[in-house]
């Protein structure tokens, strides 16, 4: 198949540190190419993949990016997989998926979400779970004694709840994450900073090898998010390293941890109990095997290929003759 992958212009593919969307695109692109498919990638400057052809956005202006894409997509493409959203909304004369990595995918014919939970809430489209490449995640059976929180430092992610768990269990807690908004800083100053000491430490954002080392050596990762998580990539990253991860029953967390229900928590006190009696945790090998079976890059690619073929074969995509795409393409042709 000839497949177009369209990334955002926020981070290169793959990202150096954080960047779940771009990492998903990287894993999917690499796996599709490995299987013999032709992949054309549109992405931010600095992207480095094995795509058959990579086009780097020459500008930060979305309108100019759209024209750049329209001008370069071959007419014989089988399907467009848009992770950005700017192409899907123009109704190209090519079957086009809009892969939403958050909660919404307005203005697109065929939205694809990262969990069934979010798909059902939108009452339209499909879902394909995120997948990761296991060899990128160091597997360790021997752990150190600390708990780990990894994510944005914001109230909805529940950093204060992770601190509460650490205080009630007497465990060391390492907090790693970004503070990139004034509201996050206010939350950090009032709810996190006053509790920092030798046992509860904030180390700022981490990525790459440092992030993997932290996860793989932790005794447990605390996923204390209380909002409607679209997926929760940290969940499968921890399990891939053989590290158990405890999460509240919010958003897609119960869906992701469906096969490991002992890791789901009803409350902070429930999480405290499970940290204290960690002998009931699944083994490191069970954690790793769970990701391999359900959330690997290979499984993700399998599911997307099935979806591509379904959309193309069933002809679900409606070609709109007077579409934004056609109008802009005609203008581009006139200018050239």
Automatic annotation (TrEMBL):
Q: Looking at the Swiss-Prot or TrEMBL record, what is one Pfam family this protein matches?
A: Glycos_transf_1
List residues of the Glycosyl transferase family domain. 141-259
A molecular function annotated in GO for this UniProt entry is: glycosyltransferase activity
Keywords assigned: Transferase
Gene3D superfamilies the UniProt entry points to: Glycogen Phosphorylase B
Q: Look up keyword Transferase and say if it applies.
A: yes
> Which domain of life does the UniProt lineage start with?
Bacteria
Q: Which PANTHER family does this UniProt record tie to the protein?
A: BLL5217 PROTEIN, GLYCOSYLTRANSFERASE
Name of this protein: Glycosyltransferase family 4 protein
């Amino acid at each position: 198949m000839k497949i177009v992958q369209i990334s955002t212009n926020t981070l290169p593919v793959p990202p150096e540190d954080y960047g779940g969307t771009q990492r998903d695109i990287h894993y999917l692109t690499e796996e599709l190419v490995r299987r013999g498919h032709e992949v054309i990638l549109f992405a931010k400057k600095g992207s480095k993949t094995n795509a058959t052809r990579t086009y780097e956005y020459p500008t930060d202006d979305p309108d100019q990016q759209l024209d750049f894409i329209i001008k370069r997509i071959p007419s014989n493409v089988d399907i467009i997989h848009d992770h950005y959203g700017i192409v899907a909304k123009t109704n190209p004369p090519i079957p086009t998926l809009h892969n939403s990595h958050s909660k919404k995918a307005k203005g697109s014919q065929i939205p694809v979400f990262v969990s069934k939970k979010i798909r059902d809430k939108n009452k339209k489209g499909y879902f394909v779970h995120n997948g990761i490449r296991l060899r990128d995640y160091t597997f360790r059976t021997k752990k150190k004694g600390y708990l780990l929180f990894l994510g944005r430092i914001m109230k909805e992610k529940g950093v204060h709840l992770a601190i509460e768990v650490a205080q009630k269990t007497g465990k060391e807690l390492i907090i790693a994450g970004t503070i990139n908004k004034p509201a996050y800083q206010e939350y950090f100053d009032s709810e996190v900073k006053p509790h920092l000491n030798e046992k509860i430490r904030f180390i700022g954002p981490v990525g790459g090898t440092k992030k993997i080392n932290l996860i793989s050596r932790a005794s447990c990762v605390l996923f204390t998010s209380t909002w409607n998580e679209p997926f929760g990539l940290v969940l499968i990253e921890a399990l891939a390293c053989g590290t158990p991860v405890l999460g509240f029953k919010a958003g897609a967390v119960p869906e992701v941890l469906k096969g490991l229900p002992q890791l789901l928590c009803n409350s902070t006190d429930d999480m405290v109990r499970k940290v204290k009696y960690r002998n009931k945790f699944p083994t490191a090998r069970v954690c790793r095997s769970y990701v391999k079976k359900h959330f690997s890059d290979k499984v993700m690619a399998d599911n997307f290929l099935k979806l591509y073929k379904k959309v193309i074969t069933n002809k679900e995509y409606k070609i709109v003759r007077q579409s934004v795409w056609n109008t802009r393409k005609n203008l581009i042709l006139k200018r050239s």
